Structures
1.
Amino acid sequence: AQSVSQHNHHVILSEAASLELGCNYSYGGTVNLFWYVQYPGQHLQLLLKYFSGDPLVKGIKGFEAEFIKSKFSFNLRKPSVQWSDTAEYFCAVNNHTGGFKTIFGAGTRLFVKA
Amino acid sequence: DVKVTQSSRYLVKRTGEKVFLECVQDMDHENMFWYRQDPGLGLRLIYFSYDVKMKEKGDIPEGYSVSREKKERFSLILESASTNQTSMYLCASRGRTFGEQYFGPGTRLTVT
């Protein structure tokens, strides 16, 4: 079955530390990739997306993600986290043969200590 | 700016009650979705709709039904609520077939 795997369920970092959240998917073929973020008490919102082109994608708030097709990965990175980055992060994938469905990972809860 | 609204932020219902969750989007999107979000399980698709009166089952449709009579509105119905349906319910809409989704604030449903 098609799936999205996020390696870390909980991550705790101090401010200014670097962040990398792993995401692997099991689809073949052409894929669209997303990272969504849910800040405490807020609705889920798009952080960044990849459809085609440059595999290094820049999103809001200094986040970036790199699509590595050979590794079926789309890891999220930020060089220096802030307390306000405390949130839950979801990786999501859809592909052109999967119809309307987008598959979400289980999420990673990030807590940034001030 | 896309706006997706849900009828309630918090809802408490009793076992066996019929529950209606309403979702409205204001961007003329064709596609609308209902998910439930549970800790450690991410988002699981209950139903989606790709046009008025059209619907497709998602991964966990049992115990749920949906209605889409107008393009902007997508309703989730729990025919007979059970305690295992206690969860956060998220509605989303999407314009392009493979584009990003826009989410509502969620409804936290508690069934007692």
Note: Chain B has no helices and eleven strands.
2.
Amino acid sequence: SQTIHQWPATLVQPVGSPLSLECTVEGTSNPNLYWYRQAAGRGLQLLFYSVGIGQISSEVPQNLSASRPQDRQFILSSKKLLLSDSGFYLCAWSVPLSSYNSPLHFGNGTRLTVT
Amino acid sequence: DQQVKQNSPSLSVQEGRISILNCDYTNSMFDYFLWYKKYPAEGPTFLISISSIKDKNEDGRFTVFLNKSAKHLSLHIVPSQPGDSAVYFCAAGGAGNTGKLIFGQGTTLQVKP
């Protein structure tokens, strides 16, 4: 069966420090991968998605970047964190031709607090 | 521009009664719609979905209704149970292989014993 691992679960970082969140998927090949963020009191906002190694699409302009160095590895990064980067970050995967009966599957998320 | 909206931030119902969660969307190109359930400090889990060619899909206590002319969908939970207390997100997806979903803001459901 497929599993998705996301770490760390919680993170407290000072403003201006770098960030690296990692996500890996097991049990499937060539998945679509996604990073979402849930800010306090808000819904889930799509940040990045990837349909293959090295292919990254950004949905919103921001202080963050994403990379996919391997088929089942997705990394969210920042060179200098801002206070507004605080939130709950979720990695997700889907099969390449996702549809209503093959939805996104989420990891357990990382709670990031920028102080 | 928010393409998927859940206008009720919270809902409280009594155990055994029906819970109705609503969602509106603006983009008529969406191909399918989904509901996710989320507990605190966890990722959302898939609950039920519906293709845009249908108007109803049922799975046990959960039924999703789609009204394309009104660009509106709803999730019915009957009977509601205390374990259903969570945040519910509706989401919409379109054609293509990106698989990306657009989520609403979420509705917090509280089912009282």
Note: The CA atoms of residues 39 and 90 of chain B lie 15 Å apart.
